[in-house]
Every structure is written in structure tokens, then in C-alpha cells.
Amino acid sequence: MKNILKLNSAVIFAACALLGSGAQAQAPAAPPAASATQAKADFQWLGQAGFRITTPGGKLIVIDPWIKGGPKAPANYKADLSAVGKIDLLLVTHAHVDHLGDAAELAKINNTKLYGPADMVTPLILLGALPAELGHRFNKTGAVKPLPGIKVTAVQAEHSSLLVLPNATTNKPEPHAAGEAMGYIIELENGFKIWHMGDTGLFGDMKFIAEHYKPDLVLIPIGGNFTMAPEDAAFALKTWIKPKMVIPMHYNSNPLTPGTLAEFQAAMKGSTIKVIPMTEGQTVSF
After folding, report:
1. What's the CATH superfamily of 9-19+37-277?
2. pTM (2 d.p.)
């Protein structure tokens, strides 16, 4: 199937909508190429739920890369996906276009496996969007060790997942079942743990996940409508999760996610959790 992922992102996003401790900030610019080793991990926000992470061991992890269609993605990456760098680990939380985004194309550019929910990866392969050898299927509580010193565990997210691709004959958008959305606990070489929550609403087992995996940093959606709003995200953090640090995400890129950073910061007042606000394209180090 040619040009399987080149459908205009706005059209796909509209179809989906109808269906349904501390950090050191740097200027908003592309981070330097990964070195063999470094003392810290660098996090660059790609917009929405997308992150580009350079690990302490110099590996490059990319999560939910909505770049070409992402209105707030860094311009240099939008112009040339190869500018993202040589990706060592590619993770996607679910099939909605603002998360799956350019992942299949990046997998092929880098000859890198796309790790994601089993029932999302399967239709991507069967529909010809992703070569079979570039897909890795796993599910909630399943753990993988894709790189030396790096472990990724799939965890619950309270959300839906729908794959929309153009019909091979008509080129019209066509929906496909894509399993269930997930979040990820990512443990880096130095033991630093990240909980990328993906898209999620509130659920009580957030408390269990936090107690069991003990994340140092949580990447949490605050946009509302499709996910937790700022007040619900703050409630989960202060009541159940209680991490050292949090980066709010999944806001500011879509009018259907109206939650704001200011609302989230107001809801977090009185908490000792360090809120690390970012702008799209910015990099922070831990």
C-alpha cells in the first residue's frame, strides 16, 4: 500500500474526533547528537505527547512522534524527519494520529522496531503500513529490554485506540480496530524511571502503578476532553502518584484539548511535586 501514512493529519484527526531532584532548562532548539555516554538524560518535547529522549548511555528514544502533522512540532524535524537523529528505540502508546503520527515512517528510515500495543502493531503490518520485521507487539504488564540497560514496561491507560488509514482503492479514510491504549514505565541505564502516561483518564490503579514501579518523573496529559483535565491530573499526582517531578503534556496543540498550563499549575499549588513546564522544542536535562 503506497503512501499509507501520507493522509493529511488534519483529516485523520477530524475523523478520530467524530468517532469518538530538579531539571535544567535549555533554549528551545534541537539537542546535540547523542554521545557515547553522558551523565544526564535530555528530554525534548516534540509537542502533544511526543518526546525525544537521549539517555545517559547515549541512546535515542522517541515516543509518540506526531511531527509532520503536529502544529507545534519543531520546524527542522517537520522539514526532514531524518533530522530527529538515529533512533534506537521507538515507542507508540496507541493508534490515534496525534500519537502514531510519523512512527511507521521513522521506523523505516531508521530500520528501527516500532514497539507498541499488540493489536495496534498487527493491523499496521497486515495493512502494509509497517514491515513485519519492524514491529514489536506487547501488552500491559509486559516488559521488554530493547537496549542494554533500558527496560520498558507497558502499563494501563484509560483511553481508546483507533487506527485510521486511507483505503487502498478510494484513498478515503477508513477506521480499523487498534486494541487498547497503554502507558510506559521506562527505566534508563542509571535507574531513572519515567512514566509516560500516554492518553488517559483517571483510574484507581494509578496508585498501584506508582507504588509498584516508583517513577521519578511523570509525563502526564492535562488537555481534557480526550484525557484528564488539569484538575484531574493534579488530583492523581497529589493523591495517588506522588512523584518527584512532573512534565505536563498533551495540551496546546489542538482546540479540542482546552486545558492549560496555568490551570494545571494552579491546581498543583501546595504540592511539593516539582512541576516542570516546557515549550514545544525545548530540552530539559535530568
Report:
1. Ribonuclease Z/Hydroxyacylglutathione hydrolase-like (3.60.15.10)
2. 0.87
